[in-house]
Every structure is written in structure tokens, then in C-alpha cells.
């Protein structure tokens, strides 16, 4: 199968790191098409970043649709434009936060989320309630490590991340840890070797959900909420989205 892995920010270095994680998780028969938008923020760390990134992200969804991909993955923990992407696409669209929450709730009674900036805590908590996983989550913790710092993580920053994971276990009662940023995907193996609970990366989780859904022959329902976009006139490059 062919999976389109979309990094909604414009950091090509981060896209490459995500693609490596995706390849490591994927079956030998799965191809990963890693995509980086042509415009938008270099990192997504607030609501404005997410809104600006969404249009370019949807451009990539449309491009993947035209290339005939079997699934799309939105590799940002805010799951930006996920519902709009599902309207636009025919193949399944998987957000890494939703994928990680689903997987964590299967392997642990309570999971903790460890993310980047403190200002993103409300966004993560909102997603937990939106997807119905708030009762499965022991808490959300922030490291205050900027997203782009994850590309070349300093030892002291890694120590901070590990400490927050440990405190999620000892203080919050987390039985698994969900890493709350796609840029943390390259750190899973190291954290897993040093911590006694499952460490769950949304990129890898999304790849495995995509493969399972494809094997079952299921596509996104186009009846109701995720039906095709309403036919209307758009100004500029968006005209092709509703054709």
C-alpha cells in the first residue's frame, strides 16, 4: 500500500525524521510518501500556526488523492484540519493524536501525554475530550521544549523529557506514555529502553492503523459528516478541491 505522510509544518528535516520512523514501523510492502508543505509555519505551536498550516496541508491531501494513495497521515499532534481532510479525501485520513490515544487505551488502563510547550496543554486536553479519551488519560504534561529543538535535541532537554515521563508515571499514575509531538518519534526507542511502560508515538501508531484499515478494505464514509465538500466557487488555487 501507499501511505502519504504529511508533516503540516515546513521543516523538511522534521519530515525526514518522521519518514524514518514511519518506514521502521511499516510492513516491507508498504511505501511511505513523505510530504512537506510549500508554505506555512516552520513549526506548529499555537492556534494561529495550526490555522495557517491547514490550507497547505489540504493542498497535500488533494495531491495525495490525485496520486491514488491508500491512506493519509497528518503528522502533527494537534490533528489540524483532520475533519476537513476527511471530507476532501476518499482514502482514510489518520491524525497522529487520535491514533496514539486509541493505541494507548488498548495497552494501558491510564496513559499520560508528554508534549512540548505549556501553551499547547489546552489543545491536547481538548482533543482528549473530543475523541472521548479523557477518562483514559492520567494527565498531560509539558516539557517546554520548542518543536524545532527536537530536531537536534540537547542532552539536558532529553533529560527533561524523560523526567516528565517518569513523573507522569509516579505522580499521575500513567501506565503508558503518549509522546505529544511528531518530532519526538525518533526518541521512542531510547525512552522505551529506559522506562518500564509502553512509549507510544503517534506516527508509528498511525502507520499501523492505516495498514490495518487498508487490509480490511475500508475507506472513509462519504455519507453524512465526511461527505464530499459542498460544491461552490472558490477563489484561487482551491477551485480543484470540490471537483
From TrEMBL:
Which chain regions cross the lipid bilayer?
none
Q: Which Pfam families match?
A: Asp_Glu_race
Instruction: Identify the Gene3D superfamilies for this entry.
Output: 3.40.50.12500
UniProt xrefs under InterPro entries: Asp/Glu/hydantoin_racemase, Asp/Glu_race, Hydantoin_racemase-like, Iso_Racemase_Enz_sf
- Which superkingdom does the taxonomy of this entry point to? Bacteria
- Name the family the entry cites: Belongs to the HyuE racemase family.
What name is this protein filed under?
A: Aspartate/glutamate racemase family protein
Give the organism the record lists. Answer: Rhodanobacter aciditrophus
Q: What is the lineage of its organism?
A: Bacteria, Pseudomonadati, Pseudomonadota, Gammaproteobacteria, Lysobacterales
